[in-house]
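Notebook, bench 3.
Goal today: get a predicted structure for Universal stress protein from Candidatus Nitrosomaritimum aestuariumsis so we can plan the truncation constructs. The sequence was checked against the plasmid map this morning, with no discrepancies at the termini. Length recorded as 144 residues. Pasting the sequence as submitted so the record is complete.
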Amino acid sequence: MIKKQVTKILVPLDGSKNSRRGLEMAISVARQFGATITGVYSINAPPHSEFRGVGSVQESLNDEIKKFMDEAKVLAAQNGIVFKEKMMRGDVGYNIVKLAQNKKEKFNLIVIGSRGRGSVKEMFFGSVSNYVIHAAKIPVLIVK
């Protein structure tokens, strides 16, 4: 008998087709285990951005993120899955791993979409997913 159950899944989202495929796989896994999903959108924002004072750029980005997270929430709900959302700023890979290892959250699995670009680069994971699989202390499922 398997003792380890998947109850909480972390899914990094960035609005791309690859992250959508990751979400779809997470929904499939969550349905099998009755797990919940937390979608995290991490904005790679340096501490001192030249766009700091440009409100319209920030507003547009927030609107785009909200739209994508709402679509993810609807897709999960259509499949009977509870979906929570989180937004973070800073280094994307680091934020994902930090959240995954948060003792309060108790995530059992990270499901992340990966991008392969070009014929040579398709053999390698994207930089964020590569960082996550090496730094995370919980299982990581890469969806390509």
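The chain has five helices and five strands. The beta strands are 8-12, 36-43, 83-89, 109-113, 140-143.
Flagging this for group meeting.
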